Amino acid sequence: MFHVNFIILAAPIFGGWCELITGKLITMAYQVKLFSSGIVIDQFYALWTDNPEKMLVVESFEGLELLIIAGFLEYHYMFSVVFGVVAVAIERLTASILIDNYESTNKIFIPIILTVIVQILAIITAFLALIYKLDIISINATWIVSCMFSSIMFLVVERINGTMGRPKWKIQKGKKYSLFPKISVKKIYEH
Q1: Which distant-in-sequence residues (6+ apart) come within 8 Å of 64 by Cβ?
Q2: Could you give the CA distance from residue 187 to residue 191 in angstroms, rounded to a whole number?
Q3: What angle (nearest 5°) sits at the alpha carbon of residue 23, between those of residues 55 and 75?
Q4: DSSP string, 40-80
Q5: CB hemisphere CA count around 170 (13 angstroms)
Q6: Which of 82, 102, 112, 177 has the fewest Cβ atoms within 10 angstroms?
Q7: Mean pLDDT: which of 81-90, 100-109, 176-185 is highest?
């Protein structure tokens, strides 16, 4: 069973599916002409381009409000997941290194602060992507850097907690261990 702190941190990431589905349904409704924007689109336009020939020119946002909201919802979900993965890595690092018996205490301020930071970053980044203040390189850089950072954090946590399921410390009776060492201790007793 997951610890309360991890559940608090992960809930917005999994709850975001609702916003993604809503955004996609609105977008599809425009694509199948269930909703009309008043703009005739005869061909596929590139999502990211600097070539004016490949851009869809829009004179007014009238009739596109729902589509803009849908785009924001989709971007927000994407960046919530990207930044949320980093927050999980930071939380696990905190659990493994900085706080003794982290899983035995409810320090809910840590996941709450991380969740608030993730959501602020996701909202700002989604808005900047929506108004085209971030180019495709910047957007791709967010998930690439996040993946690299999270992978490094995973390796650091694994190195600190033990390698290949073997703890690097003596098992002490009555001591409470963090999640990774608990699994390691259980495996040792099974063998």
Answers
A1: 37, 39, 58
A2: 6
A3: 65
A4: ---S---SS---GGGSPP-S--TT-HHHHHHHHHHHHHHHH
A5: 3
A6: 112
A7: 81-90
